From TrEMBL:
Pfam families found in the cross-reference section: Alpha-amylase, Malt_amylase_C
Organism: Haloferax gibbonsii
SMART domains (UniProt xref): Aamy
Taxonomic superkingdom: Archaea
GO BP field: oligosaccharide catabolic process
Name of the protein this chain belongs to: Oligo-1,6-glucosidase
Chain ranges of the Glycosyl hydrolase family 13 catalytic domain: 22-425
Residues in the signal sequence: none
Record family assignment: Belongs to the glycosyl hydrolase 13 family.
Highest classification ranks of the organism: Archaea, Methanobacteriati, Methanobacteriota, Stenosarchaea group, Halobacteria
Amino acid sequence: MSSVETKEATDSQWWKEAVVYQIYPKSFNDADGDGVGDLRGIERRVDYLDELGVDAVWLCPVYESPQADNGYDISDYRSIHPAYGDMDDWRRLLDALHERDIRLVMDLVVNHTSKEHEWFQRSRRRDGEYEDYYIWRDGSPDEPPNNWESCFGGPAWTYDDEREQWYLHLFDENQPDLNWRNPAVRDSVYEMMEWWLSQGIDGFRMDVINLISKAEDLPDGEPGAGQTGTEHFFNGPNIHEYLREMRDRVLSDDSLLTIGETPGVGVDDAKEYVGSDGSGLSMVFQFEHVTFDHDGHKWNAGNWSLAEFKEVLSKWQTGLEDDGWNSVYLNNHDQPRMVSRFGDDGDYRRESAKLLGTLTHTLQGTPFIYQGEEIGMTNASFASPDDLRDVESLNFIEESLERSDVQSYEDVRDAIEYVGRDNARTPMQWSDDPNAGFTEGEPWIQCNSNYETVNVERARADEDSVLHYYRDLIELRDERDVLVYGEFELLLPDHPAVFAYTRTLGDERGLVVLNFESEPVEFVVPADVALDGLELAIANADAPTVPSDSFELGPYEARVYLTPTQHT
Ligand code: NOJ
């Protein structure tokens, strides 16, 4: 067996060769004109996804929900939120995707439910078996049981007047945390997962799954710059026991794709989730490369260097190379638009969007494309807090004003426009029709004002668009094992402008060179990189078909050189 063959995925590991497209249903496409995206709207766009060439869709929550956190607050796991449609619409979407060989991964949100969930309603009434479904503690109404903070700011506890006890919520007060120590809770979750699997889905993206196990007795956390208490609930004491149980009980079909969203995991922690002796997840979403510039708090982000960025990503590339698998993403519904954060959303929007796409499709791991990334969508402008919808941003503004940290919205506007989650949630830009062709009604959140120039219709008609480039990238990755399985080696780690690396798989070699600056830069290929046989495979500018020892890269220029295919 050649080294290529030994590295290739078994059928059950189809996801190693896949590209996944993430859909945020509220903002993707509205078929019924109520201003909110819906399942029929997505169904109308499955041919678009097919043309793009993606292999799987991750659908953010579409379940019944009061929408305090846009569906990450679920009140009924087995029904569809009416604004999105119903189970028949969902089945039609599943069929439409499967007919095109696109798999469907559903969001699994089981660290918490909505307050409106029947389980919580019964729990607050101490109704029989539901009494211990959540994490309740005694205490006087003005003194929370410990000093843990919510991820969205403020205490992680709310006093419930009905039950006369505090309940824990690591997110919004409308999202009470389930008590995973209670076996009945775990049984209920597994039954629900089995039910979704029986509907024919292909896997789960597991929301903050490494937060489900809390330290016994819930001790106080060490106050610091970030959220207090995380050392007691990130990768908590029973996390792997629960995940192994989940695997044994419901995830025994090893062709299912399971992606754990795991804030705060390092490479060694990740191996415990995705390594051969781990608890069985296919991959995790780690956060280090999107938080390395947080300076204690996400709202302080922005001061980063390319050298640090390369260091973090390379650590993950090499760290999971022999045991485990990476996910590769630069943005999603919780992150700002990547081109505004890591590229240049002004003069070099097109070039830098292509450059970042080149990065995500040529690193080792499964690339995730967030809706709109493939046309180079950018962060938006939010002139007033009235334009914002996200509970996290609104809480931050309210608290900052209350604490008198700031005097007005203008004082936090830059931070909101840089990292606020609503940047990713403005409607998908389909055309230059009113509301970007997203809805015939009033959109639930404003469109980005650049939709007349940045939209799918225009990108389709322009051979040089980000969209066409993404199709080529996906096709290239599909054809070339070296991009999927090749060993990664970072070149010039300290170079302040160029991100360059090689990929090697047996005789197949690749060289990727990316200029992260808006100025031209001279790139000298390190002497130990073999250039013989390399040919240009994709680039975002005119480039020579074979590399020389040194060459000049234009602003945000990206080039991928590969040896010709060795396969027969
Ligand atoms: C992570 C999700 O991606 C985010 O959107 C949500 O607010 C939190 N988990 C809470 O469910």
